[in-house]
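Q: Predict the bound structure with FE2/S2 (inorganic) cluster.
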Amino acid sequence: MSATTERPAPAASRHALPDPGEQVPTISWPIVAIFCGAIAAFSFSTWAALADRLPAPATILLSATAIFVLFTVLHDAAHYSISTHRWVNVAFGRVAMLFVSPLISFKSFAFIHIEHHRNTNDGDFDPDHFVSAAPWWQLPLRAPFMDVPYLSFLVRNVKRRPRPEVLETAFLMGTTVAVIVAAAFAGHLWTLAVLYLIPARVAMFVLAWWFDWLPHHDLEDTQQENRYRATRNRVGSEWILTPLLLSQNYHLVHHLHPSIPFHRYVAAWRRNEEAYLERDAAIGTVFGQQLDTDEYREWKRLNGKLARLLPVRMPKRSSVRAAVFHPVPVASADRVTEDSVLIRFDVPDHLRDQFAFEPGQHVTVRTDLGGEGVRRNYSLCTSATSGELAIAVKHIPGGAFSTFAMEQLRAGDTLEVMTPTGSFGTPLDPLATKNYVAIVAGSGITPVLSILQTTLAIETESRFTLIYGNRDADSTMFREELDDLEARYADRFRIIHVRSRDPHHPEHLRGRIDRPKLEQWIDSDLAPDSVDEWFLCGPVEMVTDLRDLLLERGSDPDRVHVELFHGYQKPKVTDGFTPAEVAVSLRGRQHVVPLAAGDTVLESALKAGLEAPYACLGGACGTCKAKVLLGSVAMEQDFALSQADVDAGYVLTCQSHPTTPSVAVDYDV
Ligand code: FES
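A: Predicted complex:
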């Protein structure tokens, strides 16, 4: 299809539009005010520069700001929203156009801009697609020259335009070129550049970035496919963004109701917010996080009044339900201690939603070592809002993967990485005031590091105590990072180091973390009723001992969260079990597989060739979690599910044996 032809008109809008409750005013005094202010600012900077009263950078900055503001006048004029009198819009538009880009007539600009509204995000017909579809790093190359694709678009559509308008644009282009050439011959090209040419390009860069790229980038729907998702609102920090962007953080309102003057966008949004949300309006935060309507409602509730000053970025779960492997390049593999390595992954952009994670979640990595497939499960150790995916691997003597990671793995290598799973962490609330305690040993720090970083950043009133056991200071993973966090959150975060082989460590903190030590802490300042959430992560004996003690001392089991390094793989027995038929829902597909006596539900799925998710096979990681829809199963052991999971019918399929002849499980819910 040629881009030079007019796009066929849409059959009919499929999206009823709420009444914005805003009319075009007889005259918009705010627009008149910003017009006069911008003209005055531009005139002043020009006079001051010519009179040597203003240095060139200040002149450029002030004039660029004036041109930026004049674009909003031009923009509203193009939509005839300054006044109910058409000629008033044309008059303001013509003057503003001379400042924004004297290469194009106001009428031609209005035509091009309306085409953008009609065909937003359509690569063939949207003249703004040149900028809105650009990768971020090309913005400095494209945005300052936004009028070039506009002229190209005009040339391709010249037959559709009235002759006087075309002649006016041709006249303006000729005059602009003549003025530049004359200035060059007269030796004043630099003066012209400082007064106008450079400010105009600076202003155009910012305009294209804020008016085009920010609202439209990465949205796939065109205006004609879904007008509610062809552009977005950006929420958060509105006290500064709304005046700074001249309300273009509410760009969705503008596209839905182009005849509303810019200063009434917010009022229109507030009047119709629920109606827009019901239509699945596109919304992003100031940090670029995309929110669906439920997430926006939750974001709004959580941010409350804070949103005006301090927008909160919340962690998101992976967008896939049943975990799946993807090849992911290694960005770096750096030693953390003598016997551990931090592996950072370079997640491709198109997989970022799949690899979103909540604090405390983990990933399974898979690779081929000496012809043998090896898979291991590791907790993510970065803040869940950092956008960074990283694991820390502690060397286990004789361990195939940890030896490979320590000795051979390099940046640029690729590992198969499963999308994040697990539910060790707890939901966060920016308005909460909670007391968290984590007790960890060795590499048990990894999930807790993610939890505490994320928690301290989001819950600004909550406190965190970390009790951390290691051999000595040198074997302590993330020692510097923890020191930094302790310094940063000094009033809310404390670390108690327990060391088993450090003769200089305080005596009461020497040895291993065990029941007697926890009893002492409980009796001093960690009474169970003063702690909202406990996190225990480390060797199974330590974790189960401490958990038992906490429950004995009155802690609510739902508030004691446990993560084990490994589960137990019990020897297989078949006596007492019967065969069954298992219906498996996995990644949207249904399968029926036979189950032999003694096999687990997971084993029956794997034997049938299904890529069911799993990692530890010992009931510890929760990767194999699925919901029982029909029949019943008995689990051998469970160190991963919460009581809420169990009540909702979830099981660990690596531990589940059918107790009815037919069972149905769903990995996707
Ligand atoms: S695979 Fe880890 S709990 Fe089942």
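A: The longest strand covers residues 325-337.
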